[in-house]
């Protein structure tokens, strides 16, 4: 499922761009809506639950109570900080590349490149996590994302660094999307996975919502320069990565070689 959304992230931007050129914005949006409608109708008619549904009374406490557990709280906190920065390259890498001299035509393809490589980022790390540990893999890919932002995107000047950043970042950031629910599943009772995963995404959605306007405000404050946005992005992701280490420590202690 996670890999499928990346495939959509390759197809839809190119599709929309071509339709806008030929038929205008309105028909581009209608085309996307009809495509999504058809896919959703098919999905809803064919999806089946593994177990018969057993409705339960809704309770807010069911979503709040897991935050009293230290490993869960740390995973959610780490994901919250990481989400603050994770989507900023998706939003601003095209504008940043154009600011540094890339043509608009080439810069447009940075997001399809990012999403194409993200297909592998959302699948291969999951296989590695089964071998080396989910927390271990998440920590490695989170720090890799931080390094790419601060070490490649921030000093990038020219086409090649931007293309390389988009490709590598697509892989490392894609790992977070597929591994975050796996971390929750690892530290949860199987009967509580749905509630606890929903609780995590409810919290980190706030970071995803706030990160973009904060990034835009930083760019505006600097008169169109992206330096402070890139530093903010890397700093948030670094903070999240460090807290992932703390979550692993809370589960297994100071045992770096242990599969966690």
Question: Would you write up a description of this structure?
Answer:
- With 260 residues, this protein is mainly α.
- The chain has helices spanning 2-23, 25-46, 60-64, 70-86, 88-99, 104-107, 110-121, 124-132, 134-153, 159-186, 193-221, 227-252.
- The mean pLDDT is 92.
Overall geometry comes to globular
SSE order, as H and E?
Answer: HHHHHHHHHHHH
Q: Which residue ranges are poorly predicted, with pLDDT under 50 across at least 5 consecutive positions?
A: none
Based on helices, strands and strand pairing, what is the structural class? Answer: mainly alpha
User: How many strands in all?
Assistant: 0
pLDDT averaged residue by residue: 92
Count of individual helical segments: 12
Biggest sheet architecture: none
Approximately how much helix is present in the residues?
over 70%
Relative strand content: under 5%
Topology:
Elements lengths: L1 H22 L1 H22 L13 H5 L5 H17 L1 H12 L4 H4 L2 H12 L2 H9 L1 H20 L5 H28 L6 H29 L5 H26 L8
Helix pairs in contact: 1-2, 1-7, 4-10, 4-11, 4-12, 7-10, 8-9, 9-10, 9-12, 11-12
